[in-house]
Amino acid sequence: MPAKKITTACLRARKNSGERIIMLTAYDATFAKLLDDSGVDVLLVGDSLGMVIQGHQNTIPVTVEDIIYHTKCVARGPKRAHIMADMPFMSYQASIDHAMINAGRCLKEGGAESVKLEGGEELLETVSALTSSGIPVCAHIGLRPQTIHQMGGYKIQGKTSYSADKLISEAKMFEEAGAFMLLLEGIVAEIAFEITKSVNIPTVGISSGSGCDGQVLVIYDLLGMDKDFNPRYVKKYANLHETITGAVKNYISDVKEGEFPSEEHSFHRELQVIRSAKCNL
Ligand code: KIV
Description:
By secondary structure, the chain is of the alpha/beta class. It folds into two domains: 8-238, TIM Barrel, CATH 3.20.20.60; 243-280, no CATH class. Helices cover 44% and strands 14% of the residues. It is built from twelve helices and eight strands. Strands 1-2-3-4-5-6-7-8 form an eight-stranded parallel beta barrel, surrounded by seven helices. α2 crosses α4, α6 runs parallel beside α8 and α8 (161-177) packs parallel to α9 (189-198). The longest helix is centred in the C-terminal third of the chain and has 18 residues, at 240-257. Bound molecules: 3-methyl-2-oxobutanoic acid. Residues 25, 44, 46-48, 86, 183, 185, 206, 216, 218 line the site of 3-methyl-2-oxobutanoic acid.
């Protein structure tokens, strides 16, 4: 039986069922299929691709074209997972029209099923306009990497009562504006939990403790691809840095020593004739 597609309605229903939402980033079809096969609910085509795929220092340089390209790749893989496209810096802030056009492109051209955008009160009208037009929105609050230059670094939010109250009120306002989900990044655990209890839409957390309705991580972090990236909020479930460099070193040595390709990996005229004859049977 084909896997049941995860829709925004399914994700909203998790708020009451209590089943946690599992979200991971994906940037290409191969990973999208692997994560879908593993049972991940939401594949986020995150603007983190600017760092882990493109090698930038932060997410600011990512363009709408980049997100659409990677969303197209991701959308070809999975059968079950929901596909969410991350709206990049300055693709939705300038005006509601601009946001509508770019979010619409993520759905129409990219194949996304929802969009995520980072923001606060200033974006309520935009979220309301998008959702009224049929574009499901996940609002990303707390630590917002796109505002790194304004924040002066990646800083945990909600430490003061002013900041905590502001986050709780933003969460409620985004729910009212029509957001179907909230992404809470870099928020102290107690406040992320309080936000989760204060709204009727699901929250998905990253570096925000365990009190959210779901969790998200950057897939390369979970897999331990970068040995020098070890923030407190990441749990590495594999050490692919070691696995990959080990495999590649073995390949280098085999090629240098003449061990690869061996007979086993080579073709000969007689073999090819037999193979093509079998194919024609
Ligand atoms: O771009 C991204 O990968 C994200 C996650 C860190 C939540 O926004």
